[in-house]
């Protein structure tokens, strides 16, 4: 009745408001079979992956950002990032090389390279018969279409994060956790100290006194440190370094305070004269 290729297309524009439906009319007196194609407007846009890329990543359709993230996880899992010359480059394995036709690629090139493997998602196809033998015809079939919606739990989490009272409670709990961890470390230090003392009291006391004496001499500047030790970074990672820095900073602060007080008193004396 109608020539092949007779297609009626309706496209949604950016200014189109939501509609419940629309009618398409043609003159005719016999039933006509037709196909209805529905292209879902998904935001952000989703794409169908090529067979090779889908086999590599284990996903059939995804957003472009999701594809890049999945590909990056594959790269990290197989240790393909160049850690010798430039970390911006990826040394492709056999599968990636056959996929992108290059043995090596830069990370900024990935969005452009995956474009050749992204296609529009197949439309939803419905076989339908337009009936004209009845004044009003209602199909006996209903079709379910899967659509993506925001996770309701996401809104709940956002409300929790935006709640100042909850944030304060979380901060207080974090502080308590830090205090507990510090207390555990202090208890472990005490345990190790007493355990070593219990194993060999005399030897432990001798080593401990010698260590404390040497640290005190170094802090007060009364010891001539071996120059060979000073050349090694391990020498400055010892426990006495923090205390020495503290004493040095305190001395410098006190010296500055004395200088400021002395200069201010001189200024006052000059003003009195």
UniProtKB/TrEMBL annotation:
Lineage, uppermost ranks: Eukaryota, Fungi, Fungi incertae sedis, Mucoromycota, Glomeromycotina
Superkingdom field: Eukaryota
One Pfam assignment: SWIB
SMART domains linked: SWIB
Protein name: Uncharacterized protein
């Amino acid at each position: 009745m109608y020539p092949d290729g007779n297609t009626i297309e309706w496209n949604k524009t950016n200014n189109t408001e939501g509609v419940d439906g629309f009618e398409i009319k043609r003159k005719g007196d016999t039933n006509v079979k037709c196909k209805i194609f529905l292209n879902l407007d998904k935001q952000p846009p989703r794409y169908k992956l090529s067979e090779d890329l889908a086999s590599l990543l284990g996903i059939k359709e995804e957003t472009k950002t999701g594809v890049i993230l999945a590909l990056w996880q594959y790269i990290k899992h197989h240790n393909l990032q160049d850690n010798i010359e430039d970390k911006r480059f990826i040394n492709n394995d056999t599968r990636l090389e056959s996929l992108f036709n290059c043995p090596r690629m830069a990370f900024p090139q990935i969005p452009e390279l995956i474009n050749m493997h992204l296609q529009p998602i197949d439309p939803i196809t419905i076989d339908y018969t337009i009936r004209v033998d009845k004044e009003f015809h209602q199909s006996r079939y209903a079709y379910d279409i899967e659509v993506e919606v925001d996770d309701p739990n996401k809104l709940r989490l956002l409300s929790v994060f935006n709640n100042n009272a909850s944030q304060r409670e979380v901060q207080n709990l974090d502080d308590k956790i830090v205090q507990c961890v510090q207390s555990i470390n202090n208890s472990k230090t005490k345990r190790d100290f007493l355990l070593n003392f219990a194993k060999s009291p005399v030897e432990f006391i001798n080593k401990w006194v010698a260590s404390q004496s040497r640290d005190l001499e170094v802090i007060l500047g009364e010891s001539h440190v071996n120059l060979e030790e000073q050349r090694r970074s391990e020498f400055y990672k010892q426990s006495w370094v923090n205390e020495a820095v503290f004493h040095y900073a305190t001395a410098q602060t006190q010296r500055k305070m004395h200088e400021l007080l002395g200069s201010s008193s001189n200024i006052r004396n000059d003003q009195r004269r």
